[in-house]
Design goal:
Layout lengths: L6 H17 L10 E15 L7 E2 L2 E21 L12 E10 L3 E13 L2 E12 L1 E2 L3 E2 L1 E5 L4 E4 L7 E13 L10 E15 L7 E3 L2 E4 L2 E13 L4 E13 L9 H4 L5 E11 L4 E15 L14 E18 L1
Parallel strand pairs: 2-19
Antiparallel strand pairs: 1-3, 1-19, 3-4, 4-5, 5-6, 6-11, 7-8, 9-10, 9-13, 11-12, 12-15, 13-14, 15-16, 16-17, 17-18, 18-19
């Protein structure tokens, strides 16, 4: 099974920086509290070799590993709240959102709420619960790890569920707010998320969701950082996204917590280009360089890794992706 990083989470952070500017182009009488989006992602994955030893960069072994796709429908209702007659609080609001995300092997509904008590701050909370099915003999939407067979085995759809309540705080800044001008928009964003991951219907401490292996029940942290330059062109932004993620408690991984390094922090770097085609359509292009565990023992399949000994960090080129965002 091959690890697929979450394109959606990486790009939604960047999207929030300029959605407000697009809405400001509409007059007040045209605004509605309702907003709707259709978001579709395609990712082309390359294959990198598994190398042993301490921290290193792994070369591309094959130009093709897999192609992934995902589509997501979002509906949001925004309520003005605690607004004040000053630039910092004039747009304060509460937004209630429902989403449904579909891939060839999973379905993931989610509900969430976003409260903005100040222009640079957002507080978010929500819960998502999804299930999955199989596609062919080796692509499982949900699976648990069989330590005896050294492989992931499919879980029954609609009997096993991935459940994850979460909360986050997001801080964002635009230099254009202090230095007005179309060419002065240097933007930055930082978000910290805490979530609890749970897979029902499995007795194994290790499981896979949406072909992402080596997941375990427990509290997880996510950190997202975005730096970008926004321009009044069709190419509306160039930027860089960094993501860090890990378990608070290594013991979530049970008997393999020490050898597998249950407290390992994954890292992802993603350059991004955004093209604004109209007020309703945007195209995102993103590359992805990921850091995964490196092991002392040689291996050729990801399924072998839970029984190996982690020794370092292996950086590798993971995928190139394109996303289309349409606002209704």
């Amino acid at each position: 099974m091959k690890r697929v990083c979450s394109i959606l989470l990486l790009l939604c952070c960047a999207a929030g920086l300029f959605s407000e500017e697009v809405s400001e182009k509409k007059s007040e009488e045209e605004k509605s509290p309702w907003e709707f989006w259709l978001i579709t992602d395609f990712a082309y994955h390359v294959k990198s070799a598994y190398e042993t030893g301490d921290s290193h960069f792994s070369a591309v072994e094959s130009p093709y590993r897999s192609i992934k796709a995902r589509t997501r429908f979002e509906a949001a209702y925004t309520i003005p709240m605690l607004q004040k007659d000053n630039p910092l609080m004039k747009d304060n609001h509460l937004t209630l959102m429902g989403t449904c995300e579909l891939t060839p092997v999973t379905i993931l509904p989610q509900i969430m709420a976003t409260f903005s008590p100040a222009a640079m701050l957002e507080l978010n909370a929500g819960i998502k619960a999804g299930t999955g099915w199989s596609l062919g003999e080796d692509t499982f939407g949900i699976a648990d790890y069989n330590f005896s067979n050294k492989q992931y085995e499919r879980l029954p759809p609609f009997c096993s569920w991935y459940v994850s309540p979460w909360a986050s705080a997001l801080v964002q800044f635009d230099l254009g707010a202090l230095w007005p001008g179309d060419w002065h928009h240097i933007v930055a964003l930082a978000e910290y998320t805490v979530r609890y991951d749970k897979m029902t219907g499995t007795s194994s401490p290790l499981w896979s969701w949406r072909t992402n292996p080596a997941m375990a029940d427990g509290w997880v942290y996510n950190q997202y950082y975005v730096v970008g330059y926004q321009m009044p062109l069709v190419l509306s932004m160039v930027g860089l996204i960094a993501e860090l993620e890990g378990h608070y408690n290594a013991s979530d991984y049970g008997s393999i917590a020490d050898s597998f390094d249950g407290g390992f922090m994954s890292a992802i770097l993603s350059p991004i280009l955004i093209f604004t085609l109209s007020e309703t359509d945007e195209i995102y292009f993103v590359g992805n360089i990921t850091a995964r565990r490196s092991f002392a023992e040689s291996h050729s399949e990801e399924d072998e890794e839970p029984l190996l000994t982690k020794t370092g960090r292996e950086w590798f080129l993971d995928f190139f992706a394109v996303r289309w965002v349409h606002r209704f």
